[in-house]
Each structure stands twice: as structure tokens, then as C-alpha cells.
Amino acid sequence: MSSLKLSGFGLPVTGEPEVSHPQTDRLISGNPRRDTWSAVETDLAGASRFYSGVWRSEVGHWRIAMGPTEQEVFTVVEGRCRVHGDDGQVQEAGPGQAIHIPPGFTGSFEVLETLSKIYVICE
């Protein structure tokens, strides 16, 4: 099921970006080129809550289970981690890299080095 696929992304980016410029009626100065590499685009499945913040953890490994409408995207600021899916898939991330954990995902979260991340959760 593609809706349960973990997505990893971060720097350096690969592939061709979507290129855009600000709308002319919104310009204040210049005409900057903006490059976007979209990594995750998914329905919110009736999400009613949005959470975002900074999270830190010491080394450890534990089970996780996302609810049917709960999903998270986080970017590692410091340290390293792995997210393991019960189906055998694994995504690892370090500083500047991000992981998307989809709704209904079950598996485990492993902190390899003391971790700080910036997270966004929709539920």
C-alpha cells in the first residue's frame, strides 16, 4: 500500500525542482527564483489537530503506531535516528534530513545518537 510508505528526504536534494517566482502583484523587490522539491503530498484524512515543536531524546529504541489519521514529518537538527516499519522497510536520518511517517504506520523508532528534531504532526 503506497499510503503506508515511509518517505525520507533532505540535503542534498536530487531531481529537478519545481521552479516558481512570486506573483508580480506580491513583489516588493527583485524577482527571486524559488526551487521546490516536493517530497510528500497526501490527504489529511480528516485531520482535526496540528502539532509542531522541537523534540529531543537520548539513545533508545521503542515501538510506535500512528493512528488512522495521524501522520508526522520531522527534520533532524542534531543526532541520528532510524524508523523501522513492521514490513521491513527502514529510513535513517541525520542532520538536515527528514522522514515522513504516514497514517496507520506501525513499527519502531530508534535513536542512534542523542536526537533533536523539529516535528509536525497532523491528526
UniProtKB/TrEMBL annotation:
Pfam families attached to this UniProt entry: Cupin_3
Segments carrying the region annotation (Disordered) are 1-33
Gene3D superfamilies noted in UniProt: Jelly Rolls
Q: Provide the (S)-ureidoglycine aminohydrolase cupin domain boundaries.
A: 47-119
Matches recorded under SUPFAM superfamilies: RmlC-like cupins
Residues of the signal peptide: none
The superkingdom listed in its UniProt entry is: Bacteria
What is this protein's record name? Cupin domain-containing protein
According to the entry, what is the taxonomic lineage of the organism? Bacteria, Pseudomonadati, Pseudomonadota, Betaproteobacteria, Burkholderiales
